Amino acid sequence: MSRLTTFIIGLLLLVAVACQAPAYSAHPTRVRAYGTLTKDSRLNRVAVIGDSYTTGTDEGGLGPNSWTARAWQTLAQRGARIAPDVAAEGRAGYGVPGDHGSIFEDLTSRAVRADDALVVFFGSRNDQGVDPQLLAGKARDTFDLARVLAPSARFLVIGPPWPTADVPEPMLVIRDVLNAAARAAGAAFVDPIGDRWFVDRPDLIGPDGVHPNDAGHQYLADKIAPLIGMQLSR
Fold it and tell me: Average pLDDT, whole number, for the chain?
């Protein structure tokens, strides 16, 4: 067999192998990229610290009707995976013990974990009557503890709401103290009083004139779920 014949046969074999190769083999990077186009599967741990506006009451918001449960449903529908830890106690505040003797700092120690992505603090109107300087110190201690427990978490501090437009002066003091403490801690602060949550919406408050009913908890979920989603997406 001549060298020319051998060369031609080898060339024909190479062409045959190339023709049998998969069409996508020339673009392996693109194929791998298509295979990973899925929803964000990260599990976001979220701790919530609060008072009776979070626990729910006989007026509404118990169990699956709570704003937290409904907020998790809303976020799940938008593709966010949430692993929540909720520690809330009726009558509790940053400086006032609740029904079981806990203040927000105690609740923080129970709920916040090292791998939390976000810690949410909500309230509290129960701090009326607490000296502003003491309240500022208690809020600072609470945020400091949360930072030690969850070094990389974001903080979302939601001040106390008030269901009418004529807000008592002590509530404004609480709002301002928490705003300052939250900003000092690098937290995002939301002001339900300034944003007029529940104002002119008596249909969302129970007969006691204080606590949200089930519709009020849905209203809270509609307000707070986007705030949580925004913090998790940053």
Answer: 87
**Which residues are tagged catalytic?**
52, 208, 211
Task: Clarify whether residues 211 and 160 are in a common domain.
Answer: yes
Mind listing the pLDDT tens digit for each residue in 118-170? 999 999 999 999 999 999 999 999 999 999 999 999 999 999 999 999 999 99
Residue 4 pLDDT: 42
Between CA 147 and CA 17 the distance in angstroms is 61
Residue 19 lies in domain: 3-35
- On the question of pLDDT at 12 being above 90, the answer is no
CATH of the domain at 67: 3.40.50.1110
User: To 10 degrees, the CA torsion angle through 111, 113, 119, 122?
Assistant: 10
Provide the terminal-to-terminal Cα distance of the chain, rounded to the nearest Å: 71
Paired tokens of 221? 């979920």
Mean pLDDT of 70-89: 97
Residues 67 and 29 in one domain: no
Query: What pLDDT sits at residue 234?
Result: 80
Angstrom CA distances, 89 to 50, 121, 140, 185, 196, stand at: 7, 12, 20, 23, 24
- Do 178 and 222 belong to one domain? yes
Residues 11 and 48 in one domain: no
Q: Where are the alpha helices (DSSP H) in the chain?
A: 3-20, 28-35, 52-55, 67-77, 104-111, 132-149, 169-184, 214-233
Residue 195 near residue 226 (C-beta atoms within 8 A): no
pLDDT interval class at 210 (50, 70, 90): very high
